[in-house]
Amino acid sequence: MTDDGNFSFRRKTPEEILAEIERLKKGKLKIYIGSAPGVGKTYRMLIEAQDMKKEGLDVVVGLVETHNREETKNMIGDLEIIPLKSIPYKGSTFHDLDVDAIIRRNPDVVLIDELAHTNIPGSKHDKRYQDVLDILDHRINVLTAVNIQHLESLHDAVQTITGVKVRERIPDHLLDTASEVILIDVSAETLQKRLRDGKIYAIHKINQSLENFFTQRNLSALREMALREVADDVDDKTPEKEPKHRAAAMNEKILVCIKNDDNAEKLIRRGWRIANRLRAELFILTAIPGNFSDLDPHTRKKYDTWKKLAKEFNAHFIIESNHSRKIFSVITDVAKTHHITQIILGQSVKTRLEELTKGSVVNAIMRETDGIDIHIVADSRKN
Question: Residues in domain UspA (predicted)?
Answer without folding.
Answer: 250-369
